[in-house]
From TrEMBL:
This is Dihydrofolate reductase. InterPro entries: DHFR-like_dom_sf, RibDG_C. SUPFAM superfamilies: Dihydrofolate reductase-like (SSF53597). It holds the Pfam family RibD_C.
């Protein structure tokens, strides 16, 4: 099975968006460099960010997200972001009416079922869980192997938390990656078992 990674861009004080679901300057680092991170031409980063993020993105087989993010993005128009093979959506509702059943999106009820399906679909590739409520649920359930954060130099004060509603202590190992780059600090922690 592939490694399960909880991932997201985050403010210094631990938020992935403001109260209105706006990321503000959290993604500024994705347009501050000269190196294209993907084929769109819109995402350009520093060399340090490219060297860290591109291999990570290339290793992802499946992304898990919640229905809220799926709805905010209009389901990425049925095309998984960043060239990912599949998206697993944690939801208590069925796929939207008129949704293309051929699109590589899978709608499941519960984080445990989502991780199990994602690992099956990903094989030995990475399973990425979007930060927020679903990611926090997966961490609390002991399903996360590592936490990756792209820390932006901004303080939100309030908003949507990186770990969602997690209210218990979870120990991480010391960071094994800490890469400063333009408008971001890339961090990686293994989850202590």
């Amino acid at each position: 099975m592939g490694t399960v990674v909880l991932y997201g861009s985050v403010s210094v004080d631990g938020f992935i968006a403001d109260e209105d679901d706006q990321p503000g300057p959290l993604f500024d680092w994705l347009s501050r460099g000269t190196i294209p991170l993907d084929d769109s031409g819109y995402v350009t980063v520093s060399q340090a960010s490219y060297d860290y993020v591109r291999p990570y993105w290339d290793g992802i087989g499946v992304t898990i997200t919640g229905r809220h993010v799926f709805d905010l993005t209009d389901g990425w128009d049925g095309k998984p972001p960043s060239g990912i093979d599949h998206v697993v959506v944690v939801t208590h509702r069925p796929a939207p009416e008129g949704w293309n059943p051929e699109a590589p999106f899978h709608f499941v009820d519960g984080v445990e079922a989502a991780v199990a399906l994602a690992q099956e679909l990903a094989g030995d590739r990475l399973v990425e869980i979007a930060a927020g409520d679903v990611g926090g649920q997966a961490l609390a359930a002991g399903l996360v192997d590592e936490v990756r954060m792209d820390v932006a130099p901004v303080v939100f004060g309030s908003g949507k938390r990186f770990f969602g509603a997690v209210d218990a202590q979870h120990l991480l190992d010391d960071p094994d990656v800490a890469i400063p780059a333009d408008r971001v600090l890339h961090l990686r922690y293994r989850v202590r078992r």
